[in-house]
Design a protein that fits this description.
With 74 residues, the protein is an alpha+beta fold. It has helices at residues 3-21, 53-73; strands at 33-36, 41-44, 50-51. Helix 1 (3-21) packs antiparallel against helix 2 (53-73).
Length: 74
């Protein structure tokens, strides 16, 4: 695994964590969250997907899975 792949992996994970921290959509660039159901649930104002911690963890797990697949191919 090259250092470029490792750097990309780290950048992708940090990007999702930053979006989670700043309450932005895990899928969209510049997607902000709006509250639904009395501030308990949120959805993206851009794509309309519901956002909760499971969505962010799912995106992180996809990044980790892809990284592992690439590293096992070598």
């Amino acid at each position: 695994m090259s250092s470029i792949d490792q750097e990309k992996f780290i950048e992708d994970v940090i990007r999702i964590i930053d979006r989670w921290s700043f309450e932005q959509c895990a899928y969209c660039e510049n997607g902000t969250l709006v509250s639904i159901d009395g501030m308990l649930d949120f959805k993206c104002s851009k794509c309309g997907r519901p956002m909760n911690p499971v969505e962010y963890l799912g995106q992180i797990s996809k990044i980790v899975f892809n990284y592992r697949e690439k590293s096992s191919e070598l």
